[in-house]
Amino acid sequence: MLIKLIPKQVPLFWDTIKYGCKSADTVHQDNYLPYFNELLHALLSDKAQCFVRLDESRVIVGLLVTRFIGNKITGEKDFHLQSAYSFKSEPRDIWAKDFKVLLDVASKANCANITFETSNQRLAELCMNLGFKEVSRSYAYKVGG
After folding, report:
1. How far is CA 89 from the centre of its chain?
2. Which residue from 41, 45, 39, 52 is spatially nearest to 13, judged by alpha carbons?
């Protein structure tokens, strides 16, 4: 079951959220302090949202951080999946049920797209199986290092 935490619940689960985001996102540890400060502020002010997947015992087995992002060119709103982390491997049908919840949220918010970026091949394949289309790839070259 996928549920959205309300902002006042975020502090109760902050350590779990931080662990999942640290594991899922490509943020250098030198940038953890500003990254997590911004994330906490965004979650507490509902500028970002945290969804958690619970098992039958109501234990968190996965989490997803999302944001609504405006496209400055088209004026459309996108539902961006910022961080996705699963504490245990889940079958595709579970992910498909979760996606239906996210699709409903995006639809109710009048979003034009659901977007995400990942370097995790398994997550990319899973999303392609759900109907996502690859839009671009991102690359980086570290200058001076």
Report:
1. 17
2. 52
Distance between CA atoms of 11 and 17, rounded to whole angstroms? 9
Rounded-to-integer distance, Cα 52 and Cα 98, Å:
10
> Is 62 among the domain residues?
yes
**What is the rounded CA–CA span in Å between residue 105 and residue 117?**
19
Q: How many domains does the chain have?
A: 1
CA distances from residue 63 to 46, 86, 138, 139, 141 in whole angstroms, order as listed: 16, 6, 24, 26, 30
pLDDT block averages, 10 residues each, the chain of length 145:
94 96 89 96 98 91 95 92 87 83 95 85 76 76 77
pTM (2 decimals)? 0.85
141 within a domain of the structure (yes/no) = no
Q: Strand order in 48-54's β-sheet?
A: 2-4, 48-54, 60-70, 77-86, 113-116
DSSP state of 9: G
**CATH number of the domain enclosing 56:** 3.40.630.30
Q: Are 43 and 7 in contact (CB under 8 A)?
A: yes
